Amino acid sequence: MKYFDTLFLSVRNLWRRKLRTTLTIVGVMIGTCAIVVMISLGLAMNKNFLEQVSQMGNIMQIQVYNWNEGGMTPDGKKIEPLTDAKIAEFAKMKGVEGATPIMDLGLKMVVGKYVGWVSILGINPDMFEMLDIPVSTGRGLTGEDTNHAVVGEYAKYNLYNPKSSRWEPAPEDLNLMEEKVTVSWDMSYGEKPYPGQPTPKKKVKPVTIEVVGMVSQSGGQYDYSIVMPLETVKKFKKEQDKFNQGNGGGGGVIIGRAGSSSSGEKEGYYQAIVKVKDIDSVTEVMEQIKAMGYEAYSPIQILEQMKEQSAGLRQILGGIGITAFVIAAIGIANTMYMSIYERTREIGIIKVIGARLGDIRRIFLMEAGWIGIFGGVMGVGLSLLASMALNRFNINLGGQIMWMPQGEGLQSSYIPVWLMLAGAGFSFLASLLAGVLPARRAMRLSVMKALRQE
Prior knowledge:
Low-confidence stretches: 250-266, 398-408
Oligomer: single chain
Helix content: 40-55%
Number of helices: 12
Strand order of the largest sheet: 2-3-8-5-7-6
Largest sheet: 6 strands, mixed, barrel
Radius of gyration: 35 Å
Number of strands: 10
Shape: elongated
Strand content: 5-15%
């Protein structure tokens, strides 16, 4: 029997029992829809967790701290300072895209008639793009920059008018990219010292910096700080140390947290950032850094905790979907068995006129396959409608467990293309499996008994 003949015959046989075939297809459709929707709820939950955790910082960045400097690792090795050489070692680790120290320095800033304290973060400018710092206006730092800076949009809120009789903060529309910005390590710079405040013995010339970009809503320390090239900040730190020593600590200078060394090589840095290439390598790299004795943190730790707490719910959702489809598969097998009993004599005749056992099996498997195809495609379509409804009315089964205020408006159901294809494919394969036993039953029918069947 030709392949096209078996294909035509399988379709005709299904069409002969329209109601039963339709009901079976509806069962498969509901089962497919159930399993796709249940999986989509779990996917949406993980996707929302990732979005919420990303609000706390870049999930592929590891914050490294040298809090345990001078101590011992569990295997008895001395914990080294967080030096440039050590950070370069981090950058060579497998799965790491790059690493940079963070040098935090407190200086005085003057913009027009407004003054204020500001935190300057020194980073390797070649790492600026890797750190995914969101620059809303202007550009980021490059390797050619010196006294250039990228300023957080909230840094201007530290500015005020010292000559005003009452508190006068900087205006909301103050554009630092259009103003002359100067900084100094003399904390009395830009305003008169208050009574009793020691005045520096030697004045210092302020440094003019060029603001080349603005950071908008990074969700971290960049929003309130000024980011500058690391080498420039090191020079500032060196001059700050000289100023402090020459004035006996006068001037109210706040020393940065990079250690007393101006280069960062003696006592090391307070903090470093390691950028990992992909999310799957973050935990592994973080564990390697911790094994060296350093403290390491990434938002992925919170993400893993969220996933662990929601794992039970996601398993229940998947179980519900699978159960619904198993019931649909039983319905397919029942339909095939009923078809065999009704067409016993027909099967006998087909065998007599020369049909092979493989042809008989192919006919019944094709019938089961057609049910799976139609039910799967319709089930995926129904699941898309159900997903739209869940998102439209914000129905969230996981909302009471780990949803955060920032999660308002996040998707309740998420169906990617691969899930649609997987749902339709799984429906087809499961339907074929459900038709295997009925097909074998049809193959084993005795021709003589089949012909005597009324």
